[in-house]
Specification:
Length: 616
């Protein structure tokens, strides 16, 4: 029989200290209970008020009952035959409660033998009702409490980062504004929770560090030392990150690096980018289709591209070409030779040019009506305003680089400053060192807590300097960065990214030249996962989703008196170790999986000792 995946039943956020905003009767206890519920969503399309109050009331009763026996540690999870209930307390007096149905398998029912004699009518009706209702066998091991709690806390931290803490919103904007923001965020977040995917301990512990973290960190700290004191640096290369020493000392929430990493698009493979006709001049080779820094930073579509900039507009569609002769005629009535000769300085045939001018008249109103996206209208207006903006002296003329292989003029990424004498800068651009190449610039805003009170969140600005799939994020301690030397920072960041890229290429070349021996290929590898300060370092391609590792992590969370957990499975007979270690000066957690059958407990302990000496 097919197994059904776990499913979310309902999720609610409540505060038992809230009171109704309007006066209600003292006998109306339901109104007081309902005023404490800030958000509720259920698997059922329409949930009655009584059912919602019963579910929230059960969660509050369980918490209050557990506090009788342990005032400082309330109830966090409840197991039943078919569901799992989780309660987390992210802020004082605020509770997030979720109920998840366990994975289940339909039970096979054997046909019942007919009973002798004539039964009564009521007995037959009950028998038919029991046959019509299917029965299931629930799988208690399909969910891990630590994985559910970690996912709930990640959702809360993401909301806090983009909107602010529950307490700050309630104190500054009121309960109605808090309910509205919770509705907009957690409705989408809750039903995007995919229970069909297996839980991975790697994601629950933090973001993975770059494999070359020990070599990239000195370059990042050198770059960070050149910046003002109010900027923290984070290197991003999906799916890896490298935090600078200053970034770690600032104690930023783990959701910040995860949120910033999600804004960096993955770079397409190099062979896909280079499959285009070769340009015939250095200017054509340097032609790009990226937008300016202003357009990248303030894109209006948050669903695609870098920080909301539509990738289809930035890469393949140039709306400034729509008013060019022959741009939208699709090859009808316009001779290609006339455009080529005109660009090379040869005078075209007047009759041909005259016919081309008559054919290329485009109905702009009909064209705009055909476009469904509002972003295209905005870019179209910008294109019309900037298409022929030139200075009479030729000093501030907008520079267009033309790709002759596709007959599509494309604007340069960021206009470069002209020299003082006003001469052309085309030859300077071609001679510019690669380490000073221009970067894509973008900015976003987040809410970060102050050092004293984690519940008092304030708006902070984050700027991105991106080159292909790598980026540098600068977290400013103020709301704006107008006082910083952005040009100097951009040049230093470009040089650092160039050095990191050379480092990665050199390491990839060195690794490809090493041929593994037959013993290493055939022998099972020992996999490890080390976590510290919400960052992880793991064996290549290792996904820690074993129940033994989750159980070991949950035992480590129960108290400081448990420092290590050893376990061994039956089929297969793999060793699993979970250990808390602070020998290196900072607390780390080490998770080890040994897949060799002949390995003894002493051998596993020796492997663990070598991992403890592993320096990140």
């Amino acid at each position: 029989m097919s197994r059904l995946h776990p499913a979310l039943l309902y999720l609610t956020i409540y505060n038992p200290t809230l009171c109704p905003s309007e006066e209600v009767s003292k006998d109306d206890e339901d109104a007081e209970e309902q005023a404490q519920i800030l958000f509720y969503t259920s698997q059922e399309r329409a949930t009655s008020r009584d059912k919602m109050l019963r579910q929230v009331g059960l969660a509050k009763a369980l918490v209050n009952f557990s506090e009788i026996f342990h005032p400082t540690d309330s109830c966090h999870n409840v197991h039943s035959q078919s569901r799992r209930m989780i309660m987390v307390n992210p802020e004082p007096d605020f509770w997030i409660h979720v109920a998840v149905e366990l994975a289940k398998t339909p039970r096979t029912l054997l046909p019942k033998l007919k009973a002798k004699g004539n039964g009564k009518g009521k007995g037959k009706e009950k028998e038919k009702a029991s046959i019509q209702q299917p029965s299931y066998d629930s799988h208690d091991g399909s969910l891990h409490d630590y994985a559910l709690r970690a996912h709930l806390f990640r959702g809360y931290e993401q909301f806090k980062l983009t909107h602010g803490s529950f307490t700050s919103i309630l104190n500054s904007l009121g309960q109605e504004a808090l309910e509205l923001q919770l509705e907009r965020f957690f409705t989408v977040w809750a039903w995007s929770w995919d229970f069909s995917k297996s839980f991975e301990l790697n994601d629950d512990l933090g973001l993975p560090l770059h494999p070359l973290y020990p070599f990239i960190l000195p370059l990042l700290d050198t770059f960070s030392s050149q910046l003002p004191a109010g900027l923290d640096v984070l290197f991003l290369s999906p799916p890896h990150v490298v935090p600078s020493t200053r970034y770690r000392q600032s104690n930023h929430p783990p959701a910040l690096s995860r949120h910033l990493l999600s804004l960096i698009p993955r770079h397409s493979p190099r062979h896909e980018v280079d499959d285009r006709p070769e340009a015939s001049s250095p200017t054509e080779k340097g032609a790009t289709a990226n937008t300016t820094a202003k357009e990248v930073g303030f894109g209006s579509n948050p669903s695609s591209g870098f920080l909301g900039m539509p990738s289809s507009l930035t890469m393949s569609m140039d709306v400034r070409n729509w008013s060019w002769p022959g741009a939208l005629t699709f090859g009808k009535g316009v001779e290609r030779k006339s455009l080529v000769t005109g660009r090379e300085g040869i005078k075209p045939n007047p009759s041909v040019a005259e016919s081309a001018s008559t054919v290329t008249e485009v109905d702009r109103g009909a064209l705009e009506d055909a476009m469904s996206s509002a972003d295209i209208h905005g870019l179209l207006e910008k294109a019309n305003d900037r298409l022929y903006v030139t200075d009479p002296d030729g000093v501030h003329e907008e520079r267009l680089e033309v790709d002759h292989s596709g007959d599509t003029p494309r604007a340069s990424r960021v206009p470069s400053p002209l020299p003082v004498d006003g001469s052309s800068t085309s030859h300077l651009e071609s001679e510019k060192p690669d380490r000073y190449r221009q970067l894509d610039f973008a900015c976003t805003f987040v809410f970060l807590p102050e050092s004293g009170d984690p519940l008092e969140t304030h708006r902070r600005q984050v700027i991105h300097l991106r080159c292909q799939s790598s980026a540098v994020a600068l977290i400013a301690d103020a709301d704006n960065i107008e006082d910083y030397e952005t040009r100097v920072i951009s040049e230093a960041a470009s040089q650092m990214l160039h050095e990191i890229e050379n480092l990665i290429v050199a390491e990839a070349t060195r690794t490809s030249e090493i041929l593994p021996s037959a013993t290493k290929i055939l022998q099972p590898k020992d996999n490890y996962l080390i976590s510290f300060d919400y960052f992880t370092a793991a064996s290549p391609d290792f996904i820690a989703n074993s129940d033994h590792l989750y159980d070991g992590k949950q035992l480590l969370e129960q108290g400081s008196h448990i420092t290590e957990v050893f376990s061994r499975g039956q089929q297969p007979q793999h060793w699993h170790v979970s250990k808390r270690d602070n020998a290196s000066g900072e607390e780390r957690e080490i998770f080890l999986e040994v897949a060799r059958k002949e390995t003894s407990l002493s051998d596993v302990d020796n492997i663990l000792q070598r991992l403890q000496l592993h320096s990140l």
